[in-house]
Design a protein that fits this description.
4-stranded mixed sheet; alpha+beta; Hect, E3 ligase catalytic domain fold; 19 helices; Immunoglobulin-like; Ubiquitin Ligase Nedd4, Chain: W; about 800 residues; about 20% strand
């Protein structure tokens, strides 16, 4: 499913009244966490090396040690945590760190079942010496010493009866969603639905591959874990579950668990009786009960920070030294040329008519017929906004000393305006708004690196929002230095990365394989979540106002909400492909011919509890038919993006608007807003082409050859637009195009032959696929693709 949901919650059983536990039926133990201490290694050739460990029973990312420089006997003494069971085989790879691509020197494999264990089943704390085999000829190349600790659960065989029960329960739950509803339908009311989060499709209809039948796989049942001693479950007057702890005489909405907390964790209560958890390992607290999955997610989030920062530092907004492309002031007058001083990098202008040079742009000299006063000079910011320098008083101003008024980036008399409003033009307009509304002097923000999120919250929220328009002066405690922009850039990265911390529970990824952010409907587990969303709204507005980039972007529908644009059906594809496929099936088929039993309600799961929402008043009793299905689709799409996040979204916009009004963003569409906030990076076309697959085309096909010829002719902005069009985001993964993710996991960029030559290209962002019709000429391909990437909605036949 394309959302981040709890993986194991109680659910209704099938019609046969049986219940079963998924973890008991799969025939294999759930992987336990095993700790591997990489001690040292010896091999003949000194080099920069590190060790990578993977498990064949876990899909988690490989664990890596740090790099040891120029040694043939490196010592790490580092602990790596992996999920594995007794039948797992661990692969250890010794890699050499290189500038462009790391090389594998040798490998070793070890079965956990062969390791010595004590009576309790834990690994003995002995050093295991393993032979390293060379990658080239499989000969012995060295040794590596490792120590295992922890417990690997053994594989258990499931009973035949359990397998039968699984089949019976599955069949029963599949029928529950549709067949069991006839009696309720006859009574004129909505039937009780099986547990589901997507739409039902008729059993007698041909549903698309991504559509899910009601009840379906999610109808499988799980037994509820027994309550700990001294606990009791009760219901309040509204039918909501709560739990009573008779030991401490307190209550909580969260179901208590009999599972012990991870090592180093402790549960406490604050003065108001609210439960929170203390991690003595890192000296931090959280409102969420820690689980193995949550701790692993936090570990992966933290381990990728350095690599992500390296990639983030390579982002840019506009290409440098690109004088001709999309210049906001239009073309130079006839006989003029723009050049760059090789020593200082400063731009100057050559008049070939009278063979003179000047610093001032001739296109901006129409604002006044009078020359600048003595000692004055006009220059331009990186965004093309003119400003004036008074060398006598050593001051600068945006007001023209000849007229006393500012000269806008395009508001110059006599300059021919381009009809097309390019991205560069829009940036210039927005930057002019920001610069002309900036406040003098600077605002100082002092934070600690170890507590950047909370320190920044205190600093930003206690200041007047308008003061955040001043020039930023960021200082990290205990670090001396002046902030000329570099410290502020680092602060924006660190803070935007910290917002993703799973412990805060504020945002979640749009899907398991979609790393764009959306608001977490369960953020209310943090009692102060609305204040935090207001704080994040201010922070995002500061990033835009001061021209800084953040670490990760939001989903496209969230950007559309920022721009006050209507959410449409196509927007849901990137966020929830299952609902999208089901809605498309409903839209394209006559549902009156099918007994679907759909009503104007939506069922969803929140923190293990099934909830029902009426899409319109009385929706429980209003059936969906062919006449009103478009209204149903429109209401469901709107609900899907507002589900449980109305208050959070309002708080975010309150914080944003307090810094500057969202109306200033009117120039941009949602794709340009993502570029403005996250920046773009150099796209390696060779890496892109190497990691592309083809369907009904061959790499030598003329349309494929033309496509890559066209891609290489684009500037970085257009390449980023093409990436947005096909993959849904302008950002390349840290590991390059080989690590592109789709809705089902790793998914390489794909070009498929679809349609006729007069069709426009189409994209499938869930699968990173471009449907490229068989165009007859290079010019036709360029025309159609250029039209496609400039559009923001779906594409169909012409």
């Amino acid at each position: 499913m394309a959302r981040n949901e709890p993986t194991q919650q109680p659910s209704s059983s099938g019609s046969n009244g049986t219940s079963s536990s998924t973890s008991q039926l799969n025939g294999s133990a759930k992987p336990s966490k095993v700790t591997v201490k990489v001690v040292n290694a010896t091999f003949p050739k000194p080099c920069d090396s590190y060790v990578e460990i993977t498990s064949d029973t876990s899909s988690a990312a490989a664990k890596k040690t740090t790099v040891k420089k120029k040694s043939s006997a490196p010592e790490w003494n580092e602990h790596l945590n992996l999920h594995a069971n007794d039948s797992s085989t661990l692969t250890l790879r010794l890699l050499q760190k290189k500038l462009f691509e790391d090389g594998c020197l040798a490998t070793a494999k070890i079965k956990l079942a062969s390791l010595a264990k004590n009576e309790s089943g834990e690994f003995k704390n002995d050093i295991n010496t393993i032979s390293l085999l060379a990658t080239k000829d499989n000969s012995k190349w060295g040794t590596i010493n490792v120590i295992f600790s922890g417990y690997a659960e053994r594989k258990r065989r499931s009973a035949a009866g359990a397998r039968t029960e699984t089949t019976t329960s599955s069949e029963a739950s599949t029928s529950n969603g549709i067949a069991a509803t006839s009696s309720a339908a006859a009574a004129g009311r909505r039937p009780a639905t099986a547990k589901r989060d997507t739409l039902a499709v008729p059993a007698n209809g041909a549903a698309p591959a991504g559509a899910v039948t009601a009840g379906g796989a999610s109808g499988a049942t799980t037994t509820e874990e027994a309550l700990p001693d001294g606990w009791e479950m009760r219901f309040d007057q509204y039918g909501r579950k709560y739990y009573v702890d008779h030991t401490t005489k307190s209550t909580t909405w969260e179901r208590p668990s009999t599972q012990p907390l991870p090592q180093g964790w402790e549960m406490r209560r604050d003065p108001r009786g609210r439960v929170y958890y203390v991690d003595h390992n890192t000296r931090t607290t959280t409102w969420q009960r820690p689980t193995a999955d949550m701790l692993e997610a936090h570990e992966q989030w933290q381990s990728g920070r350095d690599q992500a920062m390296m990639q983030w530092e390579q982002r840019f907004l506009l290409q440098q030294n690109n004088f001709s492309a999309d210049d906001p002031l239009g073309p130079l007058p006839e006989g003029w040329e723009k050049r760059q001083d090789p020593n200082t990098g400063r731009m100057y202008f050559v008049n070939h008519v009278n063979r003179t040079t000047q610093w001032e742009d001739p296109r901006t000299q129409g604002g006044s017929d009078q020359p600048l006063p003595d000692g004055w000079e006009m220059r331009f910011t990186e965004q093309g906004v003119p400003f004036f320098i008074d060398h006598g008083s050593k001051t600068t101003t945006y007001n023209d000393p000849r007229t006393g008024k500012p000269v806008g980036p395009l508001g110059v008399v006599g300059v021919q305006m381009a009809m097309e409003k390019s991205f560069r033009w829009k940036i210039a307009q927005f930057r002019y708004l920001c610069l002309s509304n900036s406040v003098p002097n600077h605002v100082k923000i002092t934070v600690s690196r170890n507590n950047v999120f909370e320190d920044s919250f205190q600093e930003i929220m206690r200041k007047n929002a308008v003061d955040l328009r001043r020039r930023l002066y960021i200082q990290f405690r205990g670090e001396e230095g002046l902030d000329y922009g570099g410290v502020a850039r680092e602060w924006f990265f660190l803070l935007s990365h910290e917002v993703l911390n799973p412990m805060y529970c504020l945002f979640m990824y749009a899907g398991n394989n979609n790393y764009s952010l959306q608001i977490n409907p369960a953020s209310f587990v943090n009692p102060d979540h609305l204040k935090y969303f207001e704080y994040i709204g201010r922070f995002i507005a500061m990033a835009l106002f001061h021209g800084k980039f953040i670490y990760s972007g939001f989903t496209m529908p969230f950007y559309k909400k920022m721009l006050n644009k209507k959410i449409v059906l196509k927007d849901i594809e990137q966020v929830d492909s299952e609902i999208y496929n089901s809605l498309m099936w409903i839209k394209d088929n006559n549902i009156d011919e099918c007994d679907m039993e759909l009503y104007f309600v939506a069922d969803y799961e929140l923190l293990g509890e099934m909830k029902t929402y009426e899409l319109k008043e009385g929706g429980t009793d209003i059936a969906v038919n062919e006449a009103n299905k478009l209204e149903y689709i429109e209401l469901l799409v709107e609900w899907r993006f507002n589900r449980g996040v109305e208050q959070q979204t309002k708080a975010f916009f309150t914080g944003f608007n307090s810094v500057f009004p969202l109306e200033w963003m009117q120039y941009f569409d949602e794709r340009e807003l993502e570029l403005l906030l996250c920046g773009m990076q150099d796209v390696d076309v060779d890496d892109w082409q190497r990691n592309t697959v083809y369907r009904h085309y061959a790499p030598q096909s003329k349309q494929v050859t033309w496509f890559w010829q066209w891609v290489r002719s684009l500037d970085q902005e257009k390449r980023a637009r093409l990436l947005q069009f096909v993959t849904g985001t302008c950002r390349v993964p840290v590991g390059g195009f080989s690590e592109l993710m789709g809705s089902t996991g790793p998914q390489l960029f794909c070009i498929e032959r679809v349609g006729k030559e007069n069709w426009l290209p189409r994209s499938h962002t869930c699968f990173n696929r471009l449907d490229l019709p068989p165009y007859r000429s290079y010019e036709q391909l360029v025309e159609k693709l250029s039209m496609a990437i400039e559009m923001t909605e779906g594409f169909g036949n012409e």
